[in-house]
Every structure is written in structure tokens, then in C-alpha cells.
Amino acid sequence: MTAAADIGRRAAAKAPRLRVNEIFHSLQGEADAVGFPTVFVRLTGCPLRCRYCDTQYAFHAGEWIEIGAIAERVREFGAQHVCVTGGEPLAQPHCLALLARLCDEGYRVSLETSGAFDIAEVDPRVARVVDVKTPASGEAGRNLTANFALLRAGDQLKFVICSRADYDWSKEFLREHALAGRCQILFSPAYGELAPAQLADWMLADRLPVRFQLQLHKVLWGDAPGR
């Protein structure tokens, strides 16, 4: 092997890679970009085990792909919006480099994260959609409240509500952490567990300064993976 070839081989070996579960094109079903055609990059792995999780298939399965190759696949769909999701994408350190690369290429980029990882180093051009885990999720103890001080107007906090107890807990959580006005606050009924109209009625009765949302992809395609 020539010296140049050896350098090339070692450079390739060091190229940042991510373990990717799937890359697909669909409509954004949640948060501020709901309804826009979007490329989803779903990364493998998550240390949380939320009771209502609908992407358990992403816990372990995936292939290692270099960031440049991920960007090439995204480009093939011709969409303006890209969502990096999981699993828990921030569990892979190179996720930060992927987010920056996608922003550099001119996409409108969002990140869906569990709220259990520090968001401080996420590229400021990224819209961060941060979960607040309610008691019914089984993971409320993982909420990293230090993230709240980092939120900007373009970010979103998402509460998945499973019951009246979850709803009352979420109201108190909003008050305790003074979250109203910090960014968009999204309340969503857990699919198949809480009737959407019931959550809407509670919100209207309490005049909460939050935004109701349904998971559009669930309305359209149910539990079909990759949608």
C-alpha cells in the first residue's frame, strides 16, 4: 500500500458515522412543522423505556452510515424539512455534527429529543422539540430541567398526556418551572389512551397557554412504522 493510499484509508476509517435505523420521506406529524413534507433520519438507540413508545424497533436495529452518506440520502428526496429523531438521537455524540451538516446544506432542521440529554451544544439553527416525560411514561425522573433555561422561541416542549393525572401533573409542572412563554408548549393525547376531545376540553376549561396537537401521521396511517 502506498503512503497516500494508507492516509486515505485511515481518513476514511475516522470519518464520523452514526447508526441509522431508517431514513424516510413523510409528512411531519408533530410540532411546529406539522404537515410539511419532511425527510426523517431515525437514529438507533435510546436509554429510556417510555411505556407508550411506538418506535421500539429503533432500540437496536440499524446500520452504520457516514454523515456525508446520510446527507446524500436526504438530498435524494428533494424536501426542505429534515427531522432527526430516534430512539434518542443525542445518545450518539456525532448527532451534533449531522445536525450542523444538514443546516449547512440549507435545510430547515428539527431535532426530536427525549429531554434526558443536554441540548446546549445543538446547532442554534436547529428547532429543538424536547419531550417532558409525564408520570405515565414511566420516565419522569429523567427530565433534565437544566435544559429549560436554554430554550428559545423557535423550540418546543412536548407533553404526551395519558390521563387526567398526567394532565394535572403537567399543569403543575408548567407553573413550577415557569415554562409558559419560554417557547411553544405542546400538549398531545397519548395515542389510543386518551380521547383527543377530552384533552381539548380540559385545556379549554383551564385556559391553558399551550397548543393542542394530534399526531397527524397516526391519523393518516395509524401505527405503520416508517410513516
Task: Describe the model.
By secondary structure, the protein is α/β, with parallel strands linked by helices. It has one domain: Aldolase class I (TIM Barrel), CATH 3.20.20. The chain contains six helices and nine strands. It has helices at 3-14, 67-76, 95-104, 164-176, 196-206, 216-221, and strands at residues 17-27, 37-43, 63-66, 81-85, 108-113, 127-132, 156-161, 184-189, 211-212. It has a nine-stranded mixed β-sheet with strand order 3-1-2-4-5-6-7-8-9. Helix 2 (67-76) crosses helix 3 (95-104). The longest helix is centred in the C-terminal third of the chain and has 13 residues, at 164-176. The chain is globular.
Radius of gyration: 19 Å
Q: CATH architecture, please?
A: Alpha-Beta Barrel
Shape: globular
Profile the largest sheet: 9 strands, mixed
- Within CATH, the superfamily carries the name Aldolase class I
Supply the helix-strand structural class: alpha/beta
Mean pLDDT: 91
Poorly predicted sequence stretches spanning 5 or more consecutive residues: none
Helices and strands in order:
Blueprint: H1 3-14, E1 17-27, E2 37-43, E3 63-66, H2 67-76, E4 81-85, H3 95-104, E5 108-113, E6 127-132, E7 156-161, H4 164-176, E8 184-189, H5 196-206, E9 211-212, H6 216-221
Gist of the model:
This protein is an alpha/beta fold. It has helices at residues 3-14, 67-76, 95-104, 164-176, 196-206, 216-221, and strands at 17-27, 37-43, 63-66, 81-85, 108-113, 127-132, 156-161, 184-189, 211-212.
Keywords summarizing the entry:
single chain; 227 residues; alpha/beta; TIM Barrel; nine-stranded mixed β-sheet; 6 helices; 9 strands
